[in-house]
Design goal:
This protein has two domains: 2-76, Ubiquitin-like (UB roll) (Roll); 85-154, DNA polymerase, domain 1 (Orthogonal Bundle), CATH 1.10.150.120. The protein has five helices and five strands, in the order ββαβββαααα. The protein has helices spanning 22-29, 85-92, 102-115, 121-128, 139-154, and strands at residues 2-7, 10-15, 48-51, 54-57, 70-72. Strands 2-1-5-3-4 form a five-stranded mixed β-sheet, with helices on both faces.
């Protein structure tokens, strides 16, 4: 099927099999490799992106379902050399180690905070618990997201 994926404001006209996942199409057909593929079953959250304002697991969505929708990936966060407040907070608060899960956490947290900027601490913990990290122990991720939430509210 011929589709157009609009990723970070840029159109990518591609041909895909109907069963091709959005994660695979983004990485292999559109060259946006910041979206990581982990479990391929929607459990780990490494492939989380934002589609039409909602964080989704791109391994659970077919590329054809995203035709004509606005897709945001980790590559679209920074504004030139200026990092997104969430990216800066992850650096400042040591919210990453190996970095494999980081794009998914960034996109999940940004998607939620853009929708609900004043989310409660319990609500934030509930959201973040849906993504998995094998390295950090989560405390610095939580600190980073809380710090970025404050910065994002100021903007």
């Amino acid at each position: 099927m011929d589709i157009t994926l609009t990723i970070n404001g840029r159109d990518h006209a591609i041909a895909v099999e109907p069963r091709r996942t959005l994660a695979d199409a983004i990485r292999e057909d559109c060259g946006q490799t910041g979206t990581h593929i982990g479990c391929e079953h929607g459990i780990c959250g490494a492939c989380t992106i934002i589609v039409d304002g909602e964080p989704i697991r791109s391994c659970l969505m077919f590329a054809v379902q995203a035709n004509g929708k606005k897709i945001r990936t980790v590559e679209g966060l920074a504004n030139g050399d200026k990092l997104h407040p969430m990216q800066q907070a992850f650096m400042d608060h040591h919210g990453l180690q190996c970095g494999f899960c980081t794009p998914g956490f960034l996109m999940l947290a940004i998607g939620v905070l853009e929708r609900e900027p004043n989310i409660s601490d319990d609500g934030l913990l509930d959201v973040l618990s849906s993504n998995l990290c094998r390295c950090t122990g989560y405390q610095n991720i939580i600190k980073a997201v809380r710090a970025a939430a404050k910065d994002m509210r100021k903007e």
